[in-house]
Amino acid sequence: MSSTLLSISPPNVAKATHEPIWVCWTLITLALVFLSLFLFVPLVSVFAEAFKKGWDVYLAAITEPDAWSAVTLTLTAAVIAVPLNLVFGVAAAWAIAKFDFRGKSLVLTLIDLPFSVSPVIAGLIYVLVFGLQGWLGEWLRDQDLKVIFAVPGIVLATIFVTFPFVARELIPLMQAQGQEQEEAARVLGASGWQTFWKVTLPNVKWALLYGVILCNARAMGEFGAVSVVSGHIRGQTNTLPLHIEILYNEYQFAASFAVASLLAGLALVTLVLKFIVERRVQQELAQAKDVGASA
Questions:
Q1: What is the pLDDT of residue 8?
Q2: pLDDT in tens, 112-152
Q3: 146 Cβ contact partners less than 8 Å away, ≥ 6 residues apart
Q4: How many other β-carbons are positioned within 10 Å of the β-carbon of residue 202?
């Protein structure tokens, strides 16, 4: 048996563990064709259609009042939703990864809820709760408060669909890092806040930034839940995706593609940032596993 194993030469091992070169090139070619058809061609067509009628038409489409209102509302929803999800994500990840408590599995399930519930259903839930015929509708009307078909409803829907992103990026990294560094800091006399700011947060900064990038991209591009609660009031409750839909349905193709190019540009910037931060997150995760293995 041993002589048989020793007789295996390195070239034979290489052949057994590597695919033939034609298989590699075939898979690469198929991947490039797929990306070209479903990513590069649509992306190029968006910018081509946006500038098809000239620079003046493009500027007029993105500077008209309704477009600026959509941009402002989209940024407002993101500016409110992302920081709130940042705080929630850090707190939830810290509690789940660093402490044992009853109901931890339930908390993880609730964090994943927006991934399993359709955004349209989420919007309908908010209508049933805060709408005029909903559970709190009469009380809100008596208090002269508007949630549905107003900015608060759009913000609530955006928060719901985006709140898992930060937590889901931090939890695996914090679990891989373990609790040794925090315990050492507490032994040396650091308080809970000092331990968090000086030990925990620096170790997860890249994963935190990665989660914020994903959360911001989803907040600006959300359509389903926001569409249900917005009411499509032009110039008031339309975000960028909703404004694009209205322009396209009105056969204003140049204007719709011009506004769509803003979201496409955001997607490209997000993709570049995602690639850079993702590499740093993978490095931190590998380092955390090495530290855990050596401990």
A1: 46
A2: 899 888 999 999 999 999 988 889 988 998 898 999 999 99
A3: 140, 152
A4: 9
Q: pTM for the whole thing?
A: 0.80
Q: How confident is the model at residue 289 (pLDDT cuts 50, 70, 90)?
A: low
Q: Residues near 172 by Cβ (< 8 Å), separated by ≥ 6?
A: 285
- In this prediction, residues 243-268 reach a mean pLDDT of 90
Average model confidence (pLDDT) across the chain? 85
- Residue linked to tokens 């194993």: 5
